[in-house]
Amino acid sequence: MKIAVAGLGLIGGSFFKAFTQTGHEVTGFDIGDPVDVADSDLVIVALHPRAAVEWIAAHAAEFKEGALVVDTCGIKVPVMEGVAKVAQGARWRFCGGHPMAGKEVSGFRNSDAALFRGATMILVPGEGIDDDALAVLEAAFSEVGFKRVVTAEAAHHDKMIAYTSQLCHIVSSAYVRDELAPNHDFFSAGSFRDMVRVGAPDPKLWSELFLDNRESLLPVLERIIGRMEAMRDAIAAGDREAISAQLAEGRIVKAKMDAGGAVGKWTNGRKSGLSQEEKRKAKPGDMVRKARAATMGEEWVVPKEVKSEG
User: Fold this and answer.
1) Which helix (H) or strand (E) holds 201?
2) Do 25 and 165 fall within a single domain?
3) Chain Cα centroid distance, residue 44
4) Number of domains, the chain
5) What is the CATH number of the domain that holds 97?
6) 148 and 184 share a domain?
């Protein structure tokens, strides 16, 4: 397979290195470099959201017939809407993507062919992405180490990422800006390291992500502020019962999270992470898990024997 990677930062560089190791013919380029995607079967666009949409629009006429174009942006609604305007009726097909892997550092020098090992790749199918196309993408991303390839709707993806990623960066950034932070040495251990790990996000990228996803981010931000205010008020009032009740509620929720429960829908009852023999026998698309919001359909819990996969 001929693969092109646009954007050679941490994620794009890691894709470039990983696919090169699998034996595919891979080309990579940054913005401003000469671009040749005429023969590429798979084009991975690892740029910031707005830049990704602009780059795809600028090169839309150059993609070969049947080519699969996948972005790696951390938000999906604005990207999917932006690309849809140029992909409608095109001879190539677009699928939104979000590799759930990364580091607290950036740039090609920090990229790693092993970055995606054991991680999840989220796909948001665009128009024309059928089971056959999903099977091709599942196979390609599995080659570079992804343990799971799942599909999600754009709005649900952005709602979940607001909580699981964006909120974490906001809280960590606020935490490291405390006046006591410079004096942490000798007084910090594991809990401090956990809190500060993502406390220095790239301002240009993350301000764009926050603003473009503010519809999903503001509610989750307001909820955590409410919980922090409740704890502050209980401490100020010396209300040990209220403090204990809040901590106890957190312990219950954390225990459920650790137990591995999940809500969702699965395609044909199959799961990702299948053996090679199972993959050979499976029909196209069987291996792709569909992650949906509980409100989009019947709510159910993933069976115990597959909870570790989800």
Assistant:
1) none
2) no
3) 14
4) 2
5) 3.40.50.720
6) no
- The pLDDT tens digits for 248-279 are 999 999 999 888 754 333 332 233 344 444 44
CB atoms within 10 A of CB 141: 27
Say yes or no: 120 and 34 in one domain: yes
Cα distance between residue 96 and residue 87, in whole Å: 12
Q: Is 176 exposed, middle or buried, given 0-12, 13-18 or 19+ CB atoms closer than 10 A? A: middle
pTM of the model: 0.81
In a domain, 243, yes or no: yes
Same domain flag for 235 and 249: yes
In a domain, 269, yes or no: no
pLDDT value of residue 189: 94
Dist. CA 30–CA 12, nearest whole Å:
9
Query: Bridge partners of 28?
Result: 5
Q: Where are the beta strands (DSSP E) in the chain?
A: 2-6, 25-29, 42-45, 68-71, 93-100, 120-125, 148-152, 265-266, 289-291
Contacts of 79 (CB under 8 A, 6+ apart): 49, 52, 53, 71, 73, 96
Residues forming a β-bridge with 5: 28, 44
Please tell me whether residues 47 and 107 are part of one structural domain.
yes
Distance CA 248, CA 95 (A): 42
Please tell me whether residues 166 and 218 are part of one structural domain: yes
- In one-letter notation, the amino acid at residue 111 is S
Domain of 119, in residue numbers: 2-152
